[in-house]
From TrEMBL:
Gene3D superfamilies: 2.30.42.10
Residues annotated as signal peptide: 1-25
PROSITE patterns noted in UniProt: PDZ, PROKAR_LIPOPROTEIN
Protein name, per record: PDZ domain-containing protein
Amino acid sequence: MPLRPTIFSRSTALHFLLSSTLLLSACSTIKQVLHEEPTSTTTMAPAPEQGRYEALIGRSADAITELRAAPAPENPEMRDGKNPTSDEQLLGGQGYLRIGNGFYPSTTPEMRGIALHQGQRVGADKILLYVSSGGAAADAGSNTASTLTAAYYVHFKPPFGASFRDLNATEQQALGVSGGVNLGAIIGGTPAASANLLAGDAVLTVDGKPIANKAAFQDLLRANAGKRVTLGISRDGVLITRIVRIGLLPPTTHNH
């Protein structure tokens, strides 16, 4: 029996043609995607330097917490310093100790704000700022050419808490001694105040050992830091004793 030719309707032919076109288009798109060069990704510019803080050796937050004269303030006092060395000596005489330094790339208000925020983080009581300038931009008055250094200070409670001086010759003769010290103002909340020492007390002995002079008394206080000592005192001509727990001394360092 002879084969009869297959007859496609017009609609079937159109459907076949449309399907073929879509298939070829898809293949072309896939080929284009496979051969496209990878586009470069956008890289984020590095954030501007925000400065850095360096704690001095032995003066970490944990080391100074129990030595503070008072809790850290919410907002440290911040001002421009004059000379780092003389400022540190002056503040040291007032019971302040430098705990670290901050280094910032400019003197803009933003950087000063960052320096203040760092002081809040480390619990500083005072912040002194120093500007180092240089370069042509600095000569033209641009504050971005200058750098900022911050010195951070904490106020420590005195280990004894009273000023003192050598007994003069008249006082020594009246007491029948050859040494001793006379106490001045007593600072509240200190070991001297807790032991009920009074201004005008004449301290003659420490743990029964005579005090030669002011320097010797200072050495005895340092040697007994963190310990209890018995002071032999003459108060209004009456000999009494007082037990004093000498406070801890601030940590020392040779870093500047």
